[in-house]
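SAMPLE LOG
Freezer: B-3
Tube label: C17
Construct: single chain, 277 aa
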Amino acid sequence: MKPLSQHSNYRTQDQSTPVIARTCPRCGHGKSWSSSIRPSDNLLQILFYTPYRCRACMSRFWKLHSSFRLNIFIAAIVLLVSVLGFYANALFQKSPAEQLVSTTQEDNKIKIRAQEGDADAALQVGMGYIGSNSHKNYKEAAKWLEQSARKNNTEAQYYYGLSLLGGRGVIQDYKAGFFWIDKAARKGHPEAQFSLGKMYRRGTGVEIDRARAYLWFNLAAAQGIQDAARNRDSVANHMALAEIIAMQEEAYRIGVSDNTKLTENSIVNTPNNIGLQ
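STRUCTURE (predicted):
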């Protein structure tokens, strides 16, 4: 009979196969070495387990991958943290009804301040009536915007002017719209400056004045308003060079007086393609 070590179904320990401390489930021996994967081995075993050969009884057994056990442990921790986070969020998050009550209470506080004469609060109330899909009310919006505008709120002056130009919640009035937008523009409001330039160019609420249109387009362009530079250069094509230079100088003076961040280069920039009349 062949020695046990010579049977083809068994491997003996050699220098290339290190002995590993793995307890054999059959004989209880504490040392074994890794066994080769066989074609007949189950795929799940191969994926999640490592085969070993007992050094004493030569029986073959499987142990779960140590890295797989670690991955399972980490995954369990992550899952536990996620579940706890979900329940903590659900515990402390307000329900839709509670959120609505909270929002309503905050809106009521703002409205009370507006009723007491707070210009910023009046602006918030007015803009709320414009932006809300469920409570859109242009008449209420115009009322609160006017209140804020009369208390010298620049943003409210601009939006109340737009309400008058469009006839939203108030009787359409171009001259009154021009009045309020002009106020906001002179205080450095960039969108108001651009709107004022268009009003001068078209004669909306004021006589057509290309030079003044150029002036306000120039100021708006210096503050980065899209399309302001294009409108400015278009108007400049119909102006004399002396007019352009005069409006550039005035734009710089206005920009300094309203604390707009301007430089001489951002204002005094005569296009090369203007018509010299």
